[in-house]
Amino acid sequence: MKNIITIFRKEFLDLSRDKRTLRTMLIIPLFLYPVIITGVSKYMGHQSKNAREEGIKIGVIQNGNETIFNTFSTWNQQKIASLQNDSAQLTNAMMHQEVIMPPTFITLRNDTTQIKKLIDEDSVDAVLWFGPGFDTSIKYNQPADYKLFYDSGKNGFKNDMIFGISTAFKNYIVHERFADMQIDKNILSPFVEITEVNLATEQQQIGEIIGGILPYFFIIFCLLGCMYPGIDMGAGEKERGTLETLLVSSAGRLEIYLG
């Protein structure tokens, strides 16, 4: 035990004298991690703002099967226009993806070989292709499929808006089918409103968030704290010619390791 304490004191003294290692272990992480977190948050906010301001461009391949989608697009614009003076209802409709902010639709010729090029060149953000018999299947309440081409490596917020189009289109078709069958769509909504009451104080909510992050910081600090002394014990001791002295001392291998 005495040998372990002696070796530990020696290593700790050497480490405390190494200002560069102390800066790397303690000072740099204290400033670096907050900067990284703040920078990532600002970057995500900037990306989200750009996606909202720029909007999205959707290419629709014209092959005679996109009539119902064009009808949905027109209905969506009219619905949003009718709700412009009622911000609460408009927000609620967009939250439930009953309507979407109208994207810019671009009609494309029936040539699927150009889709990747158009998306890569940012001519469009996504392309919709409706297969043969799509309109007929939807008209007779049958399931139908279509293809949505997009690039997952681009702005994630724009991709969320693209997926929102598919959801809103699906909701529109369901709404129209219910209307044809004279079924109230509210049959799918058993609750008028769900009021969530959070009893946690603001301090408790902040504490929960910080409590989930702090352990990761401690883990990183522990790893950094072990890394540099470990490097110094191996390469540093060997470079200074003191590793051999430790190995031939009266201390055992386990004592050297623990110290």
Characterize the structure shown.
A four-stranded mixed β-sheet has the order 2-1-3-4. The longest helix has 39 residues. By secondary structure, it is an alpha/beta fold. It folds into two domains: 103 residues, no CATH class; 133 residues, D-Maltodextrin-Binding Protein, domain 2, CATH 3.40.190. The protein starts with a helix and ends with a helix. Helix 2 packs across helix 8. The mean pLDDT is 80. The protein is 63% helix and 8% strand. It contains ten helices and four strands.
Q: Concise description?
A:
The chain folds into two domains: 103 residues, no CATH class; 133 residues, D-Maltodextrin-Binding Protein, domain 2 (3-Layer(aba) Sandwich).
How are the elements arranged and paired?
Layout: H1 2-17, H2 19-54, E1 57-61, H3 67-82, H4 87-95, E2 104-108, H5 115-120, E3 126-130, H6 134-139, E4 146-150, H7 156-180, H8 202-240, H9 243-247, H10 253-258
Parallel strand pairs: 1-2, 1-3
Antiparallel strand pairs: 3-4
Helix pairs in contact: 2-8
Q: Strand-and-helix sequence, N→C?
A: HHEHHEHEHEHHHH
Number of strands: 4
Order of the strands making up the biggest sheet: 2-1-3-4
Radius of gyration: 31 Å
Helix content: 55-70%
Number of domains: 2
CATH architecture of the largest domain: 3-Layer(aba) Sandwich
CATH names the topology of the largest domain as D-Maltodextrin-Binding Protein, domain 2
Strand content: 5-15%
Largest sheet geometry: 4 strands, mixed
Structural features:
2 domains; elongated; 63% helix; 259 residues; 8% strand; four-stranded mixed beta sheet; alpha/beta; D-Maltodextrin-Binding Protein, domain 2
